[in-house]
Amino acid sequence: MSPDDPDQIASGQRGPAPTGPAQAGGVQSVERGIRLLELLADAGGEMTLSRLAEAAGLPMPTIHRLLGTLVQCGYVRRRPDRRYALGSRLIRLGETAGRALGTWARPRLAELTEATGETANLAVLEGSQLVYVAQAPSPHSMRMFTEVGRRVPAHSTAVGKAVLALLPEEQALDLVRSAGMPAQTEHTITTPDALIDELRQIRRTGHAIDAQEQELGVRCLAVAVPTADTPTAVSVSGPQDRMQRIGEAALLPALRRAAEAVAEELTGRGQRGTRS
């Protein structure tokens, strides 16, 4: 940040020297705008102006200027209650990114289905929900099918709990509180304390289980994709009885290999994109 930053002067503040990408030649206003979008997303999609300014650590004039531009471009909207929320243009960007991620990951999911015989899915965290971006269906006549693009709660799904376990506990709780914790079935976790206990167990074991919590008769195992920029998880799901007969010990090695392969694919494409 320049010592003559007009926003800093207007607020009577002088911030610390810049660090991170902007210092290496990035455009500071772009970096700050992206940071505001990330803060909104991490908070479940909406925040008050004062909370956003506090979280960003920026002067109020800077926040107003950045939000004004983001609102004008459709990436943020100002609600009647004066809260700021993610805008509709981000949906198009997210859908496009999701389709690209699904295309890259689909061969890895096909390998997972071949190894386990069950349906494999890839899901990413968007706001307070998980969105399925790719699937490889099981060859069985009785199999699980989840439409690509479907949004599901984080608290009642294996993919959701796998990515929540990556987050600090307070952030995970903020996300589920913003969406609520409705019971999808009689087995759904519906209290914050029970969810925290579950997330701690997931961190210990490295995998999440949905035991008929989202849909009766369905069991799902999920593993988070390591190093993914956006919290992402790979899962394998099938009828409860068949999944239990196969057993976690037989399913988890292939599931973990798939998650690592997706991570390598994402890393490789990121490096190729940087060089291009």
Task: Give a written overview of the molecule.
By secondary structure, the protein is α+β, with helices and mostly antiparallel strands. The chain folds into 2 domains: 6-87, Orthogonal Bundle (Arc Repressor Mutant, subunit A), CATH 1.10.10.10; 91-275, GAF domain (Beta-Lactamase). The protein has helices at residues 6-11, 28-42, 49-56, 60-73, 89-116, 158-164, 169-179, 192-205, 240-246, 248-275, and strands spanning 46-47, 76-78, 84-86, 119-126, 129-136, 151-153, 208-211, 218-224, 232-239. The protein has a 6-stranded antiparallel β-sheet with strand order 6-5-4-9-8-7, sandwiched between helices. A hairpin with a 5-residue loop joins strand 2 (76-78) and strand 3 (84-86). Helix 5 packs across helix 10 (248-275). The longest helix has 28 residues, at 89-116. The relative contact order is 0.10. Residues 27-88 form the HTH iclR-type domain.
Summarize the structure.
The chain has 276 residues and is α+β, with helices and mostly antiparallel strands.
